[in-house]
Design a protein that fits this description.
Immunoglobulin-like; 5 domains; rod-shaped; 4-stranded mixed beta sheet; 4-stranded antiparallel beta sheet; mainly beta
């Protein structure tokens, strides 16, 4: 590794010197002269190798956990890291750290020995694999560094419940659809993996009638109808579906399914009484003198369907080309189109057709015989028996009888009370009745007294031409005024004074 010049004794480096392999050398040198005998001398040369920062730090990783569960606690160690630098002095002092922003960090154990620990929450659904880069840098000039990448796999835990694609599923199905037809498919996804993300479906409302109406495929979520639906019986129904994963413990979520039954035109119109009874003869009478627009009859019909399927129209189907009667398309009223003539028939059989607007259209017919009567007085009211469901007619009669009986009782009680009050007042009037007293005065005047009232009556000499003037006054006390009527049209007012003297005043009758 060294060379010495034989003549000058200069020692030079012959090959590469590495401080990390050998930091010092001891060289022994000998000098010889050329005398006879030659003489020699010896010396020892010590060579110290000065270190240069020519070595980068070295990183060694020992994994403790190959995978880390996403619910691992913070501070859990997942690997051991050791760092070394063969340089000496400051060149061998190394600083280590985690480079990227990840939920991991290095904790110093002893000198250049570290632990890689969890420093934050993990979420496999967001990041399933972390590449953790560890760097080590020495303090040499210039500084040298090195890095190492550690791959951390995050293991799944069942921390996510299944989620349906829709919060509410609205399903539309036509009535009379075939049994076991797939109405719709509910779908839910789970962010977890493997068994934690395996979803199965079930109907929560398992009681009647839902259990007899729908069924669900537990793996695919297909909803099938177990029976043919009838819009007129059930227009809509609702139930809940649950999605459950296979994790431990299992997680689940629910959704609501609204089933709306769509109407089909499967019901024909029904004509209402009095023209609907089977086998009855429907007859209407019209006077011969009826004017144009005379009301003959009104056909009423209903359709159990809904919407456009229940929109009815009325037409006279027979006789065709009829020019005497017309019917309102929407009202069903039959009226005359013109006055009667001697050429018209006396009986007009009409066939009325009632049709809905569904696809295909359904209809019903009713027959009416219109009879022309010469005189209005000859028209007799036709009584038709309207069939009533059992129990309805009797109940109605019962309620009617109760109402009539109640009104009658109230009327009789009121009448008896009124008579009693009248009798009571009459008794009171007779009990306090005093017979009138008539007094004849010597001058031909009469005095009429009743109870506490006094009437003085005077007649003129010509009794037939005299007027009777009556002045009702309260019965006078001892000092009260007395009114006398003398012959003729003159009144005399007599007043009794306190000293029992009388003063008279003549008044002219008005």
């Amino acid at each position: 590794m060294f060379h010495i010049d034989p003549s000058t004794g200069a020692i030079t480096v012959k090959s590469n010197i590495d401080f990390e392999q050998r930091s010092a050398f001891e060289i022994r040198a000998q000098a010889n002269d050329k005398g006879q005998p030659p003489m020699a001398a010896h010396c020892k040369v010590l060579v110290e190798v000065l270190d240069l920062n020519d070595n980068a730090p070295e990183i060694t990783v020992t994994s403790l956990l190959k995978t880390v569960k996403e619910d691992v606690k913070i501070g859990t160690a997942i690997a051991l890291v050791s760092v070394s630098d063969t340089d000496g002095g400051k060149n061998g002092i190394v600083t280590s750290a985690v480079k990227n922003k990840v939920p991991f960090k290095l904790e110093l154990n002893y000198k250049n020995y570290y632990s890689l620990v969890v420093d934050g929450p993990l979420d496999r659904e967001n990041i399933s694999v972390y590449n953790v880069t560890i760097t080590a840098t020495d303090e040499g000039t210039p500084p040298l560094s090195s890095s190492s990448i550690i791959t951390v796999d995050v293991a799944d835990v069942n921390d996510n419940a299944p989620r349906f694609t829709e919060p509410v599923f609205n399903v539309y199905i036509k009535e009379n659809s075939p049994v076991d037809v797939v109405m719709t498919t509910v779908s839910a996804s789970d962010a977890d993996t493997n068994e934690n993300g395996l979803v199965t479906y079930s109907v929560l409302d398992s009681g009647a009638p839902i259990s007899t109406l729908v069924n669900i495929n537990s793996m695919t979520g297909d909803l099938t109808c177990l029976q043919s639906l009838n819009y007129e019986e059930m227009k809509t129904f609702q139930f809940r579906v649950q999605a459950t994963d296979s994790g431990v413990p299992p997680l689940s979520s629910n959704t609501t399914v609204n089933v709306i039954v769509l109407d089909e035109n499967d019901n024909s119109p029904v004509v209402l009484p009095p023209y609907s009874e089977h086998g009855s003869v429907n007859t209407e009478n019209v006077p011969y003198t009826a004017e144009a627009g005379y009301f003959v009859a009104k056909i009423r019909a209903v359709d159990a369907d809904s919407g456009y399927n229940a929109l009815l129209s009325y037409h006279i189907s027979e006789p065709k080309g009829n020019n005497l009667f017309r019917i309102g398309t929407s009202s069903g009223e039959i009226r005359t189109k013109r006055r009667m003539s001697d050429n018209d028939l006396k009986t007009h059989p009409l066939i009325i057709s009632v049709s809905d607007h569904g696809e295909p259209s359904l209809s019903a017919t009713v027959s009416i015989d219109v009879v022309v009567i010469e005189r209005t007085g000859d028209i007799q009211t036709q009584f038709r028996h309207v069939p009533v469901k059992d129990g309805t007619f009797s109940d109605l009669n019962l309620y009617l009888l109760i109402a009539i009986f109640s009104v009658s009782v109230i009327f009789l009680l009121s009448l008896i009370s009124l008579i009693a009050v009248k009798c009571h007042r009459t008794d009171n009037s007779f009990s306090g009745y005093n017979p009138p007293m008539i007094t004849t005065h010597p001058d031909g005047t009469w005095s009429y007294s009743k109870s506490t009232q006094q009437y003085d009556v005077c007649f003129s000499s010509d009794t037939l031409k005299s007027d009777v003037v009556v002045f009702p006054t309260p019965f006078p006390p001892a000092d009260a005024d007395l009114i006398s009527i003398n012959s003729g049209d003159t009144f005399q007012r007599t007043q009794t004074l306190p000293n029992k003297e009388k003063a008279s005043h003549n008044l002219t009758a008005a």
